[in-house]
Request: fold
Amino acid sequence: MAKHSNSIPFAAVSVDGDSKVPLYRQLYENLRQAILTGQLAPGTRLPSTREVAAELQLSRNTVMNAFEQLLAEGYVEGHVGSGTFVSQALPDELLTARAGVRRAFRPRRGRRSVSRRGELLATTPVRACCPAVGGVVPFRTGTPALDAFPFDVWHKITARHWRRPQRDLLGYGDPAGHRPLREAIAAYLGAARAVRCRPEQVIVVAGTQQAVDLVARVLLDPGDSVWVEDYGYLAARGALTAAEARLVPVPVDEEGIDVSAGARLCADARLAYVSPSHQYPLGVTLSLGRRLALLEWASRTGAWVVEDDYDSEFRYSGRPLAAMQGLDEEGRVIYLGTFSKVLFPSLRMGYMVVPEDMVEAFTAARALVGWCSPVIDQSIVADFIGEGHFARHIRRMRALYAERQRAVVAAARRELAGLLEVGAAAAGMHLTGWLPEGVDDAAASRAAVARGVQTQPLSAFALERHYRRGGLLLGYAAYNEREIREGVRKLGAILRDVVRGSRRKAS
Reply:
């Protein structure tokens, strides 16, 4: 449909049939704007819907829908037997608004200031510092292979639950989580991760970040010191910062977090947050000696250890390593897991395993921050695990991710020699590539994002810089081999420009 405009009295009214905006909405917006700018003064009688429809070559239903919206919002009023009029009750200041101009809001002095906690929440980063790129593009981290997810199985389980939903699945549910899901998680963790727990110790949460937030609420007071891995996971660090904890950055080397360094930096820390099976983002594994040293420190000082086991299922050399929680004899470890990496992120579901004497406190805290995760979703996951689909899916993904990692390494050898040092890893869903010395990884990341390649700078995960070289994270789980090869090729062209520019500046 071509554009049409009415001459009297709607000179400013125009609608476009090719627009994605519904015609009634376009007409409504035009009339509303004419009223707000004074083109249609209070008390002005509007033509009938039949006249407007004829003038603009619209259906009468379209015009009636627009008029009804204006009437519902108070911009016009109907007088029986007389027609429709611009409302007389609109405030003068509203009528003086100018088209296309929004007044800047000026809060009164001393009003609307946020709390200290609000400032921390607003200013704490939870993602690396490169801007987001639309869609799923190489090499975003943390995204599983959605192209290989068994949606047909998931659909059948979902349909079964919604066809005749049980009444208890439509209620508020247990804040600690749906009992069958907690039982399934406990059984899985015992068999696959050597976690020692009963179903009562499992608390279902909306992902790892909420779990860390609950830990902070239950175990920390403002000002308490917390060891965090440096480099480390931003979202967990953000939750701790928002709780006004004092973060103590502890360096990570090839054996994981340096426990002796943590003891020197702050021996009386209240808590340590670690990812021992596959450290994020460096990918190293915490050695047995350091696991035992960390547990000994926690026992001696009365501290807590939070074990984030975010993607330990994906290990390509031997069986997945046993969780540190299984070594804990004194109930000092709180174990965190997530379904975001093994199923899909938008499910927003994870779990924590807490010591038996802390179950009541954590359940109460979970209730206060959102009561519980959707119960039917929990029931679907419980069936997915209980019927064996979960274990089969993990086995398939472990093989697929190993292939995709090999594709990244092979492509990097061809395209990134001298630009980014990328080696194979024993586990995980991403690789860490090392740039030549002197190359700014944040600048390299920005250049890549600007040209359609998503890669995060390693420096964004650091509180203190412990390494001389910058690096980039390359997530590979979500991409097929063709996408990986093309992404590496594009990244090579980008990094050649970045490295060349860096060397020019250095000279």
Q: What stands out?
A: Residues 123-129+150-387 form a domain with the Aspartate Aminotransferase; domain 2 fold (CATH 3.40.640.10). The chain has three domains: 4-95, 123-129+150-387, 392-506. The first helix runs from residue 23 to 36.
